[in-house]
Write a structure and sequence with these properties.
Layout: H1 2-20, E1 25-30, H2 35-51, E2 56-61, H3 77-85, E3 89-93, H4 94-99, E4 112-114, H5 117-126, E5 130-133
Parallel strand pairs: 1-2, 1-5, 2-3, 3-4
Length: 136
């Protein structure tokens, strides 16, 4: 009986350890060019990275948010580059670029273009990433 209790305790402790040591993964949706909303997202991402530095994060820019990732525009360029240096992935929606007749060559080199923001977010969710809507 003691052997069974020990084995059960060991198994439960192992399962708890595996569950708690799983890497966090979050994908942020950022659809707006509103600078206050963007500042909130950058603050949230930094807060997560400060609390859990190993978290994998991707921000998906679409709608008017795509302007933040262009070489010649963007109010928070330094903040975005600092996030990239911390390992944050920066995705920009090609559909949004097309709608605004923006050449993808204008996108900063630290970002990558995805065909569709929503397809990217759906894929991340299927891979176990948590979804966060960008906002205050």
């Amino acid at each position: 009986m003691k052997s069974f209790a020990f084995t059960l305790t060991f198994l439960l402790a192992s399962l708890f350890s595996i569950h708690t040591s799983a890497q966090l993964k979050a994908v942020w949706e950022l659809p707006t060019g509103d600078t206050a909303t963007q500042a909130g997202v950058y603050r949230q991402v930094n807060n997560v990275l400060n609390a859990a530095p190993d978290t994998k994060i991707e921000i998906v820019f679409h709608g008017d948010a795509v302007y933040a990732l262009l070489n010649d525009t963007g109010y928070y360029k330094q903040e975005i580059l600092k996030l990239h240096q911390r390992g944050v992935l920066l995705a920009v929606c090609n559909n949004s670029l097309k709608k605004r007749t923006i050449d993808p060559k204008r996108v900063i080199q630290q970002a990558f273009v995805v065909p569709s923001a929503f397809v990217e977010i759906i894929r991340k969710q299927q891979e176990g990433w948590s979804y966060i809507k960008g906002g205050d």
